[in-house]
Amino acid sequence: MKDTAYTKNDIVHVSFEIGLFLKGIYGLLEILGGVLLLFLNPHRLNLLTHFLTKHELSEDPRDIVATYLISLSSSFSISTQHFAVFYLISHGVIKCFLIILLWRRKLFAYPLTIISLLLFIAYQIYRYTLTRSVFLIFLTLFDIIMIVLTFLEYKRINNASNAQ
Length: 164
Fold this sequence. Notes:
Blueprint: H1 8-38, H2 42-59, H3 64-74, H4 78-103, H5 109-131, H6 134-163
Helix pairs in contact: 1-4, 1-6, 2-3, 4-5, 5-6
């Protein structure tokens, strides 16, 4: 009988690959979001927000979500737009670039990814102190998991290459 039990290394490797795939999708969505945001200036955002919330506000003028969205869109400035475009595109490109290097098993990419994720985490924590966004907490937790998986995968690859 063949032993089909998975080893710790197999589980770490598969988890690492799934995490890379999810990070890759998120990186591509960030790039796409940044490109789309190039065309969504403050005036267009206000028009879109009013269009999307007018029905809800006609039923309930105090609707929390609709009034929050209108308030948020009215504070959206050109400088906010430029920052968001730069952040989303650069963050997405860096992530996708690192993922390609990791899939190609370039050894220097593992520590580089860990450092990059630590920098992203530092910025996400800073942004959390300003926004209190629960999404940033989940993103930070996912990045911490990816750091651990990247470190374990790096050790696995190093051990395998040293054994040869």
